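User: My advisor, Dr. K., asked me to get a structural model of this assembly before our group meeting. I'm new to this, so sorry if the format is off. These are the inputs:
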Amino acid sequence: MDTNTKPTDRRSVNPAVRRPFDSPATWFEAVYTHAGDDINNVPWARQTNNPLLMPWLEQQLRVHQRTLVVGCGLGDDAEMLARRDLQVTAFDISPRAIAWCRQRFPSSAVDYQVADLFQLPATFRQAFDLVFDALTIQSIPPHMHADAIAAIAECVAPGGTLLIICYGRQPDEPTDGPPWYLARTELDQFLQHGLQEVHFEEHMMSGVRRFLVEYSRL
Ligand SMILES: C[S@@+](CC[C@H](N)C(=O)[O-])C[C@H]1O[C@@H](n2cnc3c(N)ncnc32)[C@H](O)[C@@H]1O
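Assistant: The format is fine. Below is the predicted structure of the whole assembly, which you can bring to the meeting.
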């Protein structure tokens, strides 16, 4: 499978993707449920880790760190991080997605949980040395982005790292989702939550701009 396939390229295979976006809980559960048992019917599922994650991780010396994967989908990134000896918790709002992760990786070391980013357990508060999100913020409507950014930032422990990978746009480019591509100016809201930007990359892959941004909490 082409790891750079745009989600929209595979919309036709899953009619639930064309439903109006009502809420993250119902929209994503419908997409995963309508996919049946065929992973190819989940538009964003790559069956391998995010292509930008491994090069970033290879420059890091991280072992046994408490790691949180936000909106983990079908678990490929969480599994890759666990194989690198990180202690991984991964959550998604979709019960079907989490059940699918457990089915795909029955011997997994990852602690998979059904959870809503907007109602996270108090135990997640500043509890993770590494927080990783790929593609979740952009998958929910723009009026929810500020709250999503605040909730993700809240999970980063003192001295911890946040890694965001998303589809990017210029601030004046319109976005019509899902997914709703993110402008760098939106991502700057992380700085309002005690985080500092330490690294920024921009890539063009298959005609789609992607941002990788690393933040740290002092
Ligand atoms: C575009 S998919 C990306 C999945 C995965 N991160 C990846 O890169 O393949 C967005 C994921 O975020 C999850 N999600 C959306 N809103 C959420 C929320 N409020 N809380 C937790 N997960 C959420 C969806 O169920 C979906 O699995």
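One thing worth pointing out at the meeting: Residues 49-217 form a domain with the Rossmann fold fold (CATH 3.40.50.150).

User: Perfect, thanks a lot.
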